[in-house]
Amino acid sequence: xxIEPFALERWMTTYETRVHYDIAESGIFPLSLQxxxxxxxxxxxxxxxxxLLDLRLGYNEANGTLALRELLAGxxxxxxxxxxxxxxxxxxxxxxxxxxxxxxxxHVVAPFPAYQQLYSVPRAVGCDVDLWRIRxxxxxxxxxxxxxxxxxxxxxxxxxxxPHNPTGAVLSAADLERVYRLAESVGATVMSxxxxxxLVIPGGEELxxxxxxxxxxxxxxxxxxxxxxxxxxxxxxxxxxxxxxxxCWATRDYVSLSxxxxxxxxxxxxxEHREGVFRRNAGIMTANLAAANAxxxxxxxxxxxxxxxxxxxxxxxxxxxxxxxxxxxxxxEEYSVMLAPxxxxxxxxxxxxxxxxxxxxxxxxxxxxxxxxxDLQSSGVGLASP
Length: 386
Prior knowledge:
The chain is an alpha/beta fold and about 375 residues long. The chain has 13 helices and 13 strands.
C-alpha cells in the first residue's frame, strides 16, 4: 500500500512535546494513575495498585480480555463480547476496517474536513472516494442532503465522525438514522468513528446513539483516548457483527497482534469508574469554553468561531493575512503555543483549537496567542482580504 503523508500528524509530531501551551489538544486533559485510583471507593486504591504490581507482563488475550470486551459490549445494545475487538487505539480500528471492508474500485463517502485517515486510507486501498463536505457557510454542520447526492448504487461504505474532528459538528439522532437508511438503500455499511463519544458539553447538544445500535450495517469505533483522558494506554475497539470482528482480528495478527496486558487492566479500571471521569471532564470543558468565548469576544475583529456542539474541537477563523501553517509554526516556535493549522485539514485561514486542556494551561495559551497576534500586527501583517 502506498499512502500520502499524514499532514496533521507530521506537523503535530514536530511541536507537541516541545510547546508549553498545547491548546490544539484533541483529547481531554490526561488522567494520572493517582487520579484514576482515587476514583475507587475508599480503601480499594491500594489493593488495585498491588494487583497491578503483581501482574505478570506476558502476552494479553489477542482480541482483548473477555472482561474488557464485556465491559465495552455493555455500552451498546444487543452486543456481546464476540462483537468487540480491542485495538491499538481507534486509529488501528479504522485501519483494519478499511482494509477488511474495502477493495480497489469500491465507492466510499467520507467527511471533509476530517482526520485525514478517514479518507486517505480508502484512497490508498484504491477506492473512489467522494468527500461529504462540512462547509463554513453552513456553520460547519452536517447536511444529509449533501450526502444523499453523493451516493451511488455502487457505494460500499459511508464514513461518519460525530462529534466531528475538527469542527465539533454533531449529527442528530434523526440525521444519523437517516444516514443509516440511506446506506441501507444502496447496500452500504456505515462506519462511525466515535472517538468523541461521551464528551457532552454541559448545555450543548445531545449525542446520537452509537451507530452500532441502529442495525447490522452499523459499525462503531471507540477509544479511551479522547473521552477518558487515557491516550497513553492506546486502547480502542471495534463494535461490529461477529463475523466482521473475526475478519478484522485475523488481519490484526499481522499488525500489532494484541493490546498490552497492563493497558487492558487499566482500561477496565477506567471504564468501571467512567462516570467520575465524565464529571471531571464537564468541569474542564465548562471552564475552557467560557475562557474561549470571552477571549474571542475580546478579539472579535481578529477571530471568530462556531463553538463545538459536543466533543472538544472547533475551527478558529482568524482575520490576518498569513497562511495557517506559517501562523501555527510561529505560534509554536516563538510563543510555545500549539494551535493546529487549518490547511492540514484543507481549510485555510483557520486554526484547530481544543477545549480539553488543563484550564490554567488553556488560559495561558490564549494569552500567549494574543501576544502573537499583537506582534504580527505591529510588524506589518494586515487583515485578510474579505
